[in-house]
Amino acid sequence: MTDNQETQDAAAEDTSPxxxxxxPLRQPCERLSCHKSSVCSRSYFVVVMVFFxxxxxxxxxxxxxxxxNSGQEDASRSxxxxxxxxxxxxxxxxxxxxxxxxxxxxxxIEGIRVGHVQKVSLVxxxxxxxxxxxxxxxLFEIPGFLSEDECRVVMQLAQLKGLMESQLMVQDGQEELAxxxxxxxxxxxxxxxINQDGQLQLHEILTHSRVRDGIWLxxxxxxxxxxxxxxxxxxxxxxxLEEFRLLSNDAFQRFLLQRGVKRSQLVRxxxxxxxxxxxxxxxxxxxxxxxxIRLTRLPPTLVDLSExxxxxxxxxxxxxxxxxxxxxxYPETACTHTRLAANASxxxxxxxxxxxxxFYLNSVDGGGETAFPVADNRTYDEVSLIQNDVDLLDTRRxxxxxxxxxKPTKGTAVFWYNYLSDGRGWVGEQDEYxxxxxxxxxxxxKWVANKWINIDPDYQRQARYQQLVSQxxxxxxxxxxxxxxxxxxxxxxxxxxx
Length: 498
Ligand code: OGA
Ligand code: CA
Ligand code: FE2
Prior knowledge:
Layout: H1 3-15, H2 22-31, H3 37-80, H4 84-87, E1 117-123, E2 126-134, E3 139-142, H5 148-161, E4 164-165, H6 173-180, H7 185-192, E5 199-200, H8 202-213, H9 219-229, E6 239-240, H10 241-245, H11 251-259, E7 268-269, E8 271-275, H12 283-296, H13 300-304, E9 309-314, E10 319-323, E11 333-335, E12 348-350, E13 353-360, E14 366-367, E15 370-372, E16 404-406, E17 413-417, E18 419-421, E19 427-430, E20 436-438, E21 441-443, E22 446-454, H14 459-470, H15 491-496
Parallel strand pairs: 11-12
Antiparallel strand pairs: 1-2, 2-3, 3-17, 4-8, 5-6, 7-10, 8-9, 9-22, 10-20, 13-17, 13-22, 14-21, 15-16, 15-20, 18-19
Fe (ii) ion (FE2) binds near residues 323, 325 and 436.
């Protein structure tokens, strides 16, 4: 019991006898039962009654006060923090105009165990086999998902449309970027020195270079640069602050540009294009979309509102170093596809690709596997991905060290979840194990297609986006069963289709 409670209790004891105030007050009357009794009893009675009434009125007033005050607090709390209701969907307050009840659970296919095969019905009159390749990430393989003809049509449509370079060469803008960099050498050094040991290890510089300009340096490249710039004076393979200070801001970039950057030195070396899969698209493209809906068991609207089909071609020597198809989601991250429904401008934006379905459109003569460097690892250790000697993200050199590799076979589809579940039927955190890349093609050409299914981990934003899209004016002939989010449908029915 706290001190405060003790005093309160004592006060309560003091006041309690006043509830039976008539008892001790009656005693003098009894003792003076003879003379002056009428005057005495009347005045006493009046005084007692006055006190009694005042007491009762006070108690009632107090009760009113308490009741009113707590009511107001509740009201002001819910006015000041409307966002808190996002964390408390179970609150009994009815959803406000822009809030949607989570009345949907996204299905997630069970992997059971690696090697487990389940039959799936994707087209009428035939069952496909779906094999679990890994649990972390949840990854499946479906041979014969596309027919030979379908693969041919998709490759031809992509050629007809024209494929563009997937990554631009290092732009001229780099120098301007370096000039604008308004940080002292000490500040830059401190930011790059991830482990804060006062030295720049090779991998600390490699990681930075990839993020900054998309050039994929190997440890050897970097050592060449050190030698060319005479940067590592003591030759220990590390850069100290003193050594770093002697370099200009864009020394590395300038060195590289002078020597020339090859396509093979970029993060990604391929060409791609996008194919629309909606109404009016080639029947093969619409069929593929329908099959993806049956495969993933997701509400059709989510697939309809996702990115078009991306078709990618790697020439011999092409590659795509290990990456995530979608970024981590912080509270201040917006998804590209739901930008329309974001409340304010947000500092980060990512694609929010809940699922990747990757189709192999041809069988590759040599190389070109899809590698998952950390699939089903016991632990995920970001730091040990890039050691000074082995870089597990490098799909030109180290695919053989990846935990899992899928060989491209014409017509096979693989699909995986880039996000975990939030445990309540919606999209949760990014799955770090979903790291993957395309190994270097050593012989021939490689053709793949990506179908990404975009879902915003922020349920409210996804729902708002779908409502906005459903309110867009539609063409007259668009009123058949396929468009489930018709205008005029009240919001409750719209979320059913989420
Ligand atoms: C991609 C990708 C893998 C591959 O296009 O995002 O990861 O095997 N491709 O080509
Ligand atoms: Ca360091
Ligand atoms: Fe990818």
